[in-house]
Backbone:
């Protein structure tokens, strides 16, 4: 009996050592998550009482709130714009870096990846300087080349504003995709490519029939995480329309063309005189539902060949 008690006392020490992590996780992560879920069922402005309204916030969002669906449409257009381009150009650049034509592979990998390490504030400043209406580099370049006579307000048009956001996300994340693809290609056994060349396969066939199928797990990871980050997009459009670049501070950009769900959540919860924390929490959890839905759809789509066998 004494020996068993000693063993039980020794078994308590590991739990004691890992207890601080679980306590900190419960206080700083689990409690805010659960409290935000509770707030989504209330009408609270921080100062007054928290009135429980049930599903009214969600019903208002899904059935009557045009701004919420506008923001979801915007991020969907952004994802459709930058994700295929990232996959295509990421694979092509990675293939070029891993080919025999490039000798200093590490240098080119770091050169491409450097954009991903740039802070969002710096990215916003770079693109604001490029597309600024009055002193932007792009307008001045086009005028010097004689392509345009009058300066174009790139940030004042809804169509061009969406394309600028797509280019920002593409430029920042291209190196991230290239690094994953180069790592995946470097891990492929060279004997596979050698056997394909002996059989007379062209470089195109090797790329389409060997490289792409072997990169399927990497593609799954990159596409799912890009969908998640795309639905959470907020820093890039907010930085462009903070005031100095666009000429005036515009929530959501021209005609709400770059309004995103997370920006809408921030605007509803913290911007203005009325703090609608219940509505902001409902927007956050509604966005989470769409993230989960599109993630499951993406996984099912990638595994469709395996399920059919």
Residues:
């Amino acid at each position: 009996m004494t020996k068993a008690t000693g063993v039980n006392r020794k078994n308590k020490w590991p739990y004691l050592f890992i207890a601080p992590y679980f306590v900190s996780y419960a206080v700083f992560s689990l409690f805010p998550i659960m409290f935000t879920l509770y707030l989504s069922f209330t009408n609270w402005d921080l100062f007054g009482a928290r009135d429980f309204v049930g599903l009214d916030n969600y019903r208002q969002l899904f059935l009557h709130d045009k701004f919420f669906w506008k923001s979801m449409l915007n991020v969907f257009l952004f994802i459709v714009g930058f994700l295929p381009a990232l996959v295509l150009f990421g694979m092509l650049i990675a293939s070029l870096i891993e080919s025999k034509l490039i000798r200093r592979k590490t240098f080119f990998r770091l050169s491409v990846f450097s954009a991903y390490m740039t802070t969002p504030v710096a990215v916003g400043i770079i693109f604001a300087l490029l597309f600024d209406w009055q002193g932007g580099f792009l307008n001045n370049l086009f005028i010097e080349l004689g392509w345009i006579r009058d300066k174009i307000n790139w940030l004042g048009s809804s169509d061009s504003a969406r394309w600028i956001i797509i280019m920002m996300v593409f430029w920042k994340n291209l190196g991230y995709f290239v690094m994953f693809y180069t790592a995946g290609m470097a891990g492929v056994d060279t004997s596979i490519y050698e056997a394909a060349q002996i059989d007379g396969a062209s470089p195109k066939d090797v790329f389409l029939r060997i490289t792409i199928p072997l990169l399927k797990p990497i593609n799954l990871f990159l596409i799912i995480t890009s969908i998640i980050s795309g639905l959470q997009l907020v820093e890039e459009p907010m930085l462009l329309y903070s005031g100095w670049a666009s000429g005036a501070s515009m929530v959501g950009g021209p005609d709400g063309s770059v309004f995103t769900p997370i920006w809408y959540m921030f605007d509803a919860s913290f911007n203005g005189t009325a703090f609608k924390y219940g509505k902001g929490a409902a927007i956050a959890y509604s966005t989470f539902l769409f993230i989960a839905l599109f993630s499951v759809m993406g996984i099912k789509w990638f595994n469709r060949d395996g399920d059919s066998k």
About this structure: Residues 36-304 form a domain with the MetI-like fold fold (CATH 1.10.3720.10). The longest strand covers residues 42-43. The chain has one domain: 36-304.
